[in-house]
Design brief:
Number of helices of chain B: 14
Number of domains of chain B: 2
Largest sheet of chain B: 9 strands, mixed
Strand content of chain B: 15-25%
CATH class of the domain at 82-253 and 290-307 in chain A: Mainly Alpha
Order of helices and strands of chain A: HHEEEEHHHHHHHHHH
Number of helices of chain A: 12
Structural class of chain B: alpha/beta
Number of strands of chain B: 12
Distance between the termini of chain A: 46 Å
CATH architecture of the largest domain in chain B: 3-Layer(aba) Sandwich
CATH superfamily of the largest domain in chain B: Periplasmic binding protein-like II
Helix content of chain B: 40-55%
Strand content of chain A: under 5%
Oligomer: heterodimer
Shape of chain B: elongated
Largest sheet of chain A: 2 strands, antiparallel
Number of strands of chain A: 4
Strand order of the largest sheet of chain A: 1-4
CATH topology of the largest domain in chain B: D-Maltodextrin-Binding Protein, domain 2
Largest interface: A-B, 43 and 45 residues
CATH topology of the domain at 82-253 and 290-307 in chain A: MetI-like fold
Helix content of chain A: over 70%
């Protein structure tokens, strides 16, 4: 075979990304293996998270050396992550669909680049700024006027902050797709006597459905993994399941961030290994969401093909 | 481009990389020009003090560079054990199990700190309500839920306590403040000691409406944003807490007196443990037995690996730590962060430990 330096270098570069991903998964698997053995299935169904007595002598439980009283259950954090991300999507989708349609259809051509740039700029604001805004503006607002208990920290605040962070992701993907819709489709719809509203909802939106779902998946990935902004406004629930929109919650990513410091003082290392196991769970959740979305979009495509 | 050009460019690049690598080695080893860099990380409570110390110290010792970061006591201990940093700052001393695993580690007190119990009670900010360990344990475990609970009223005769649900605020990040607060609850309340115990994070009992906040500044803003909340906040943050309109509680000490955190009461707590402080200086002054002793006071520790990478680093480290426990304990530094100086006997013990750094 002929030696092809260009192709080889491209191949090695393109393999770098999957290799890094595999390395991360492999590391998490190997590092958390003792925790997976110790925690078993109770890990994802348990509500109690207890590092145990880090200052007493470690004890042996079922052959594992752990701090006395150690009990790692993450249902609270999984619930908090899923709830806050889904509510954020519920808030963000109408906002971003509206914004994208407005930018594509209702804004004069020469203003559109300026406005869409502004939307894109929201996406590059660092998450700590969103967190600060949440603490300084949103929490007092929700605490005083919305929350029955007067407490502004919790599920609703975290979801709104997340929604603002992901709206530009969905809006810009959708806007690009709307602008790609062939002129002929729009104009023939108008020619058939459709109103502007009907043109958008019946002629244009069905064509960009796949892109919209793709944008939502991207946004969901961001929301599931967002760490700092959520840690600042979520209220850091521990050992307690959310019961309302105003309950404090914890998400998986923010919990790893805030617990790592204490986990490091565990002489048996089981706490850090359990945190690695949480990361693995987050990874599985994100993967499942992506796979689900892939199925959904391919399904949507098939339906359209059959209709055509 | 000619081959020779390419070659010379890559040689230049390579020597550049080599120079960088060399610079990095020199910086960590601290061999060249006797200049050494000390890296400090850990406690967010000690961080403001290090920021006052470092400019003053390096002005007198230009051959030593010190960088400081605020990461958390747990990170301070962990990274010092791994020899990633020279100074690990911690509000908590190392556990027996950790010391057994790492016999080279020294726990050296640098100064004395305390913690206030702050509350957001409209109209009662200047009243200094009385609270005890069992009352606080009741609040943080969800057994006492109302401000006008019988136990709180009994401790505060004549105070008009509101019929409102208490919002307990705790730290979500690993924190020496959580360590000393839960140690007070454990020492004063057997049921807390048996169920929750103490640590830089604990498994907080489920309290409906309880809030977790990040860092001491997060505690201040969470308490300020939530009327009828209660929070434990390091005294370094006394000024922002007062500015946010938070009240300071008087706490019941081991001998039954209600005392406010101030230099006299924190000093009383320190002097009550001076004579029983062991040579490795790992001792709690929480719930100290002194008539006027404030119950939540503690030594602020430098966690140091006695075996440093080389002699020059060890020498610089000894110089800095000796300076910190003597000149660094001057009121010009400590007053700004509301810390207290080490008693003379403890200063001597610290210096004996500092001499072990090789």
């Amino acid at each position: 075979m002929k030696f092809r330096p260009f192709r080889l270098s491209l191949l090695s570069l393109s393999l770098l990304i999957p290799a890094a991903l595999c390395a991360v998964i492999l590391f998490l698997l190997i590092y958390s293996a003792p925790a997976i053995g110790f925690n078993g299935l109770g890990f994802v169904t348990g509500i109690t998270w207890n590092l145990g007595d880090l200052y007493g002598d470690p004890v042996s439980v079922r052959g594992f050396t752990v701090p006395n009283g150690a009990d790692y259950g993450i249902l609270v954090f999984v619930t908090g992550t899923l709830l806050s991300s889904f509510i954020a999507i519920l808030i963000a989708v109408p906002l971003s669909v509206g914004a994208a349609i407005f930018l594509a259809e209702a804004v004069p051509h020469h203003i559109r680049p300026v406005l869409s740039l502004l939307v894109e700029l929201v996406a590059v604001v660092p998450s700590v700024v969103f967190g600060l805004w949440g603490i300084a503006v949103l929490i007092p607002l929700i605490g005083h006027y919305v929350s029955p208990s007067g407490n502004g920290y919790g599920l609703l605040t975290a979801s709104i902050v997340l929604a603002l962070m992901i709206t530009p992701i969905i809006a810009t993907t959708l806007l690009d797709a709307l602008l790609q819709v062939p002129k002929e489709n729009r104009e023939s719809a108008f020619g058939l006597g459709a109103t502007h509203f009907e043109v958008v909802t019946k002629a244009m939106m069905p064509m960009v459905r796949t892109t919209l779902i793709g944008g939502i998946v991207l946004a969901l990935g961001r929301a599931l993994g967002e760490t700092l902004a959520v840690a600042m406004v979520a209220g850091g629930a521990l050992n307690i399941m959310p019961t309302s929109l105003f309950s404090p919650i914890s998400t998986i990513a923010s919990f790893i961030l805030t617990q790592l410091d204490s986990a490091e003082s565990d002489p048996t290392n089981m706490a850090v290994r359990s945190l690695a196991e949480i990361a693995l769970v987050l990874f599985v959740i994100t993967l499942a969401m992506n796979a689900g979305a892939k199925l959904l979009t391919s399904g949507a495509l098939n339906v359209r093909k059959r209709q055509a | 481009m000619k081959l020779s050009n390419l070659l010379s460019r890559s040689t230049a690049l390579r020597s550049g990389v080599a120079a960088l690598a060399l610079a990095a080695t020199v910086a960590t080893a601290g061999a060249a020009h006797a200049a050494s860099t000390l890296v400090e990380t850990g406690s967010s409570l000690l961080y403001p003090l290090f920021n006052l110390w470092v400019p003053a110290f390096t002005a007198a010792h230009p051959d030593v560079q010190i960088t400081t970061t605020s990461t958390g006591s747990g990170a301070g201990i962990a990274q010092s054990i791994k020899n990633l940093v020279q100074i690990g700052a911690s509000d908590a001393y190392m556990s027996d199990a950790l010391v057994q695993h790492n016999p080279n580690m020294l726990n050296i007190p640098l100064a004395i700190s305390a913690q206030a119990i702050n509350y957001n009670l409209p109209g009662l900010a200047n009243t200094h309500i009385n609270l005890s360990g069992p009352i606080l344990a009741g609040i943080y475990s969800g057994k006492i839920t109302m401000w006008n609970d019988r136990a709180i009223r009994a401790a505060n005769p004549g105070v008009n306590l509101p019929a409102h649900v208490i919002i307990p605020v705790h730290r979500v990040d690993g924190s020496g403040d959580t360590f000393i607060f839960t140690q007070y609850l454990s020492d004063s309340t057997p049921s807390w000691a048996h169920s929750v115990h103490y640590g830089t994070t604990v498994s907080w009992p489920a309290v409906a409406g309880g809030i977790g906040a990040n860092g001491n500044s997060g505690m201040v803003s969470a308490a300020a944003a939530n009327p009828y909340s209660i929070a434990y906040i390091g005294v370094s943050y006394a000024a922002p807490a007062a500015k946010a309109g938070l009240g300071v509680a008087a706490l019941k000490n081991a001998l039954g007196a209600y005392v406010l955190p101030n230099p006299a009461t924190v000093g009383a707590a320190a002097s009550s443990v001076v004579t029983i402080t062991p040579p490795d200086e790992r001792i709690s002054m929480i719930f100290a037995k002194g008539a006027n002793a404030y119950p939540i006071a503690n030594y602020e520790y430098a966690i140091i690996n006695a075996k440093q990478a080389d002699a020059a680093t060890a020498a610089s480290l000894r110089t800095f730590l000796n300076w910190a426990v003597t000149d660094g304990n001057a009121s010009q530094f400590l007053d700004q962060v509301h810390f207290l100086p080490l008693p003379a006997a403890i200063q001597t013990l610290s210096q004996t430990q500092i001499a072990k750094i090789k």
